[in-house]
Amino acid sequence: MIGLAPRPIGILGGTFDPIHYGHLRPALEMLETLQLAEVRFIPCRIPAHRATPLITAEQRLTLVQRSIADQPGFVADDRELRRDGPSYMVDTLASLRDDLGDDIPLCLILGADAFRGLPSWHRWQQLSELAHIVVMQRPGSLSSLPPVLEEFIALRLIEDVVALRQKPAGSILFQWVTQLHISATQIRALLAHGQSPRYLLPEAALAYIHDRALYRS
Ligand code: ATP
């Protein structure tokens, strides 16, 4: 234990179209390394930055639920599915604050690719008023960031996970995670070509995909 301050809650948003081990293994490393109380997986209803997913939001949520069911500390959160319109993370964090109060540290967990695109997110500067940002770093992933992001980082950078507990929001931490070169795009392509994505995602998720004949082109 790092002390008596409340343990932060990790927030992992995504399309999860479908969820895979490239999400799950880093999320577990975050749970343990940052000593989080939990990691909340929050599938988006309508992604703000990409094409409409091939399967329904409810099916993506089910895939998440089945994949995390046996992992203590992993929680599926359906709040974005219950909200109309595009799924903006700033609204999601505000709604978590309404539920959880202002004191508990929240850690918005982002892949390095998502972090790089942050300046295009709706009201992105406000994200750090609501949560810390933890970037899952990979080699070379942070070279030549846009100047506006460099400036954003410089004001907020911390190097010690303990600092995540000292205030509820406002810091940025870069955290190394095991590199798994897996993407949902790759899994969808395999399925569309009648090939197997086995071992790239949990068996429980794959069984559901096969049962419902999802992602067949
Ligand atoms: P797609 O291939 O459809 O773009 P994806 O596999 O990147 O999807 P998302 O649901 O878009 O999955 O990702 C949710 C979050 O997980 C994002 O912050 C993303 O950067 C991160 N992420 C996705 N894949 C990995 C991976 N292999 N390693 C680390 N982080 C990842």
Index terms:
217 residues, alpha/beta, 8 helices
Task: Describe the fold and architecture.
The protein has 217 residues and is an alpha/beta fold. It is built from eight helices and seven strands. The chain has helices spanning 21-33, 57-68, 89-100, 112-116, 127-130, 147-154, 184-192, 203-211, and strands spanning 9-14, 38-43, 74-76, 106-111, 132-137, 157-158, 172-176. Strands 3-2-1-4-5-7-6 form a seven-stranded parallel β-sheet. α2 runs antiparallel to α8 (203-211). The longest helix has 13 residues, at 21-33. The structure holds adenosine-5'-triphosphate (ATP). Residues 14-17, 22-23, 26, 110-111, 113-114, 136, 180, 182-185 line the site of adenosine-5'-triphosphate.
Could you give a quick summary of the protein structure above?
33% of the residues lie in helices and 16% in strands.
